[in-house]
Amino acid sequence: MAEPACIDPRHHVHDAHGFVAAVERACHERGLRLTPIRARVLGLVADAGQPIKAYDLLELIRVGNNDDGEGAGAAAPPTVYRALDFLLANGFIHKLESVNAFVACHHPNTAQHSVPFLICDNCHSAVELEDLDVVAQLEERAKSLGFRPQAQTLEVHGLCARCAG
User: Fold this and answer.
1) 11 vs 31, higher pLDDT
2) Secondary structure (DSSP) of 101-154
3) CATH number listed for the domain at residues 16-164
4) Distance (Å) of CA 96 to CA 37, 72, 116, 123, 143
5) Which terminus of the chain has fewer Cβ atoms in its 10 Å neighbourhood, N or C?
6) pLDDT tens track for 44-80
7) What does the buried/exposed string (b/e) look like for 38-72 if buried means 16 or more CB atoms within 10 Å of the residue's CB?
């Protein structure tokens, strides 16, 4: 089944609980373990609706209702960072390097992939703009210069249509 292209600026994760369930299924299919703290971090990233920083996640875990059995003692920074590392490595979230924050990936059933992001400097929204042509062009251009790309991070800052209007 082909994944839809993320070319609609309104395309984002609308249902954090459903997203976590989709990731749980993907983990089961791939033989991965989505621990309670990983699921909690993932749910908070998906529920944020915009990029969220690791320490904001830590604070939400510490003060939020914790009905998943993970106590506040499990909410140390290394625990959150390990959960984020797992989610990143398996393509469930993306890290926006320029703002040092995380967003849910729209395609929990695919492996880690490169996508350009459009980041609004006013409202801080981030749009995952899956454009395979842009990704391929960057890779081809790098290779033509003798560079061997290992990862791509393309983030375009500006104003979204709502803020620019």
Assistant:
1) 31
2) EEEE-S-TTS-----EEEEETTT--EEE---HHHHHHHHHHHHHTT-------E
3) 1.10.10.10
4) 21, 27, 10, 15, 24
5) N
6) 999 998 899 999 999 999 887 444 444 444 578 899 9
7) bbbbbbbbbbbbebbebebbbebbeeeeeeeebee
